[in-house]
Amino acid sequence: MVDDDPCSLVLAQGMLSERYEVVVACGGHQALGLLDEGLRPDLILLDLLMPDLGGYGFIQCLHAREGGAEIPVIVTSGCDEAEAEALVLSLGAVDYVHKPWRPQSLLARLRTHLELRQARDQLRVRAVSLEAEVAHRVAECLAVQNVTLHALASLAGTRDPETGAHLERTKCYVERLAVLLQGHPRFQGELSDAYVGWLVRSAPLHDIGKVGLPDHVLLKPGPLDADEFRIMQTHAAMGADAIAHAERESGMTLDFLKVAKDMARHHHERWDGAGYPDGLAGEDIPLSARLMAVADVFDALVSRRAYKAPMPFEEARRIMSLGEGTQFDPDILAAFLAHFDDFQQIALRHQDPEEPQAPAVVTLPGPGWLN
Q1: Which of 10, 287, 351, 362 is the most buried (most CB within 10 A)?
Q2: How many domains is the chain built from?
C-alpha cells in the first residue's frame, strides 16, 4: 500500500491484514526504496496524488525496473476525473478505485487481480516447463536421427572396410565447402545455416547404396573391368531408392532426407553431363551432390585403396584443378582450391590408421577406379 496519508494506510491495513500480508510505504520514493531492497509484492495499491512522487511517475519508475511491469497496480484516488483514470490505465495500471473505499468492492477487486496474477505466474512457469520439454524432445529426436544415420552409414562401411574414415572425412569436406560458399552470390540463397546442417547430417549416407553391391565387385582388390564398373554405378540409384523407401514407410517428408536422396543419387554426376546415373549437367545437379562430388573425388585421390597407394596432396590438387568446368562446378572447385590447406588438414586429422604420413607418388589405374 503506497499513500502519503497515514489515515489511509491505517485504514487499508485494518481492512486487508486479515487476508493478506500488508507492507505500507509513505510515498512513492519510499516504495521504490523497498523494491530496491528486494521486496517483491504480489500487488500494489497505489494512491494517485502524492507530493513526493505521484502515481503517474511511480508507475513509470516501476515499469522501468526489471520485472516491474509484471506487478499489478491498482490506483486509488479521491479524484473523480475520467481523464485521470484513463491515463493511469494507459500507463499500465490494472484498475482504478475511487475513495472513499467500499470494503467489499475493494476486497473483491484485490482478490480478482491477485488470482489473475497467480494464474499468469502459473502459466509462465508452465510455459517455461513446456519449452524445456519441447527442447528436450527435439534434442532426443535429433539424437535418434543422428544415431540412425550413423548406423546406416556404418553399415555401408562394414561392407567396404577399405574406406576407413572416408565417411567422416567427406562429411567434414562438405561442411567446410558449404560454409566457404555461404557468402557466394550463386549459393547464398540456398546455403542457409539450416541447409548446411542438413548437408552435414546427410553426407554419411552418400554411399549407402554400396550395401546392395555384390562382394565380387565391392571387395575386388584391384581396378574394375567394364562390366563390374557398370554394376558399381548402380549404387547411386540404389542408395537414393533405399532412402526414398524409408521416407515413404515413415509417412513423413523430412528436409534432410531430401538432401540425402539427392546426394546419394547424384554425387557421381558431372558438370559436363557425362556422369551417372541420370547424366545431369550444370545446375540441374542438386547442390548437395555437386559439393559431395568434389569431396568424394578428393578423398579417393588422397586415400589408400587395395589397388592404389594414397596420392600426395599437391598431385591431388593438380588433378582436381583439371576438372574445372568438366567434372566439377567451377565455383565450388574454386573455393576448394583457394582453401586447399583446410581440406588437407581434414584429411590428415581423420586419416585411416594404416595411412602413412607422407604418401608416395603412384600411377593411376584404369578408368572407373573412382567408383
Answers
A1: 287
A2: 2
Residues 279 and 212 in one domain: yes
Q: How confident is the model at residue 320 (pLDDT cuts 50, 70, 90)?
A: very high
Residue at 272 is within a domain: yes
Contacts 24+ apart (CB under 8 A), 107-112: 107/15, 107/16, 107/19, 109/74, 110/16, 110/20, 110/43, 110/45, 110/74
CATH number at residue 106: 3.40.50.2300
Helices (H) and strands (E) in the chain, counts: 14, 3
Beta strands in the chain (DSSP E): 44-47, 73-77, 95-98
332-308-229 Cα angle (round to 5): 70
Instruction: Identify the CA nearest to 298 among candidates 320, 276, 314.
Output: 320
CA-nearest of 317, 206, 222 to 269 is: 206
Cβ partners under 8 Å of residue 304, min gap 6: 162, 310, 352, 354, 355, 359
Say whether both 118 and 173 belong to one domain. Answer: no
CATH of the domain at 218: 1.10.3210.10
**Angle formed by the axes of helices 166-181 and 287-302, to 10°?**
130
Same-domain pairing of 198 and 64: no
Q: Are 33 and 107 contained in the same domain?
A: yes
Residue 83 structural domain: 6-127
At 321-369, the pLDDT tens digits run 999 999 999 999 999 999 999 999 999 998 876 544 444 444 444 444 4
Bridge partners for 45 per DSSP: 74
pLDDT tens digits along 284-305: 999 999 999 999 999 999 988 7
- Looking at the domain assignment, is residue 310 inside a domain? yes
DSSP state of 308: B
Q: Who's near 60: CB < 8 A, 6+ residues apart?
A: 91
Tell whether 134 is covered by a domain: no
pLDDT band at 14 (very low <50, low <70, confident <90, very high): confident
Average pLDDT rounded to a whole number, residues 206-220: 87
Q: How many CB atoms lie within 10 A of CB 268?
A: 22
Q: How confident is the model at residue 163 (pLDDT cuts 50, 70, 90)?
A: low
> Cα-flanking dihedrals φ and ψ of residue 269, to 5°?
-70, 160
User: Do residue 108 and residue 169 come from a single domain?
Assistant: no
> What integer best gives the mean pLDDT of the chain?
87
